[in-house]
Amino acid sequence: MYIIPLIYQIASMNNHIFISRLQHSFQSIITKYNILRTAHYLDTNAIINDEKLSRFSIINLPDEEHEQNETVKKILNQSDLFDLSVGHVINCHFLRQDQTNHSITQNNDDLLAKNDLILFSIHHTCFDGASTSILIRDLFLAYQSNDSLPVDDNSLQYIDYSIHEHIMDMILSQGFWQLQLKGYNLTHQLPLPIDRQQSSTDQRSGLASTTQITFDDDTSASLVNCTSSYHLTLFQLGLSIFYVFLFKLTHGEGDLCITAINANRYRSELTNMIGMFVSTLPYRMQLNSHWSFDEVSHYVQEKCLSILEHSHYPLQHILDDNRLNQSSVSFLETKFDFISVSKDVNHLCLNGTNLE
């Protein structure tokens, strides 16, 4: 189960949040975006709207921070957190500190105060990273006005896009992807210096390890300046650097294919819509060992722009066209993603109360 959690802690000392008002704001968002209240019945393959929409919970937090983290983990690991068969794909949890420590909330169960938490849990089938800023923006507007969000029955919704995607002519995009992967051995393993081999079965342990590298301010500024000098986006620059890195790791292998995450909001009408647009797509680059970094970056840029026009073609169709199943495709094992986090997403202010 793929969950997108959004958690905010109240930072204001003297201001507070009204639970009932926030519930109303949250419900207003669900009413506005029907993808957040759509049920899918597998037995009839029919899509319906269900008014039994969301779930709220108020939970008292333990005093110790590590126990509070465990409480959040338990919430997110609940087997019944979602139920797609009735359109239950989003939750709002209010996690309150010991009320004896809050003079404001001690005698009022409708208030959240400093250090209390608000946790949103959303199923990934209806929500992607770009949807977060839209949700936060509308939550702010609804809470500030203390009124329901305006709903335009004629406005495009994610389900409209989904239907359009299923009936649109994909022949041109199919040809594009066949040409992109022509001659590439899709089962070829990149000779990366790894100390563990992939399991021969489809069973996965669920375990992972991560390494984090933090750039200092000078390096970060240099990267931004580099995008300006080379006329690149940060995604294109990062992808170019990653390919040069892979080229070195594989001792000069020039035909490299990995996957990258694409926002897939290729039309202006999709930029303000909550939904699951993001796609995972193969990015094949055929590098020349004599190229300068300038040549590599512009080649990567051109490739990215060409892929953008065909990002709506589903990965599953690409695999089916090549008679492949997901477990046998090597390019899915190496992935590049660039995540841009807006300040508006990390910091929220509701009627003068700051949340971080």
UniProtKB/TrEMBL annotation:
Any one GO MF annotation of this record: catalytic activity
Pfam assignment, any one: Condensation
Source domain of life: Eukaryota
InterPro entries recorded: CAT-like_dom_sf (IPR023213), Condensation_dom (IPR001242)
GO biological process: amino acid activation for nonribosomal peptide biosynthetic process; secondary metabolite biosynthetic process
Domain Condensation: 14-332
GO cellular component terms, semicolon-separated: cytosol
Classification via SUPFAM superfamilies: CoA-dependent acyltransferases
Protein name (record): Condensation domain-containing protein
The organism of origin for this protein: Adineta steineri
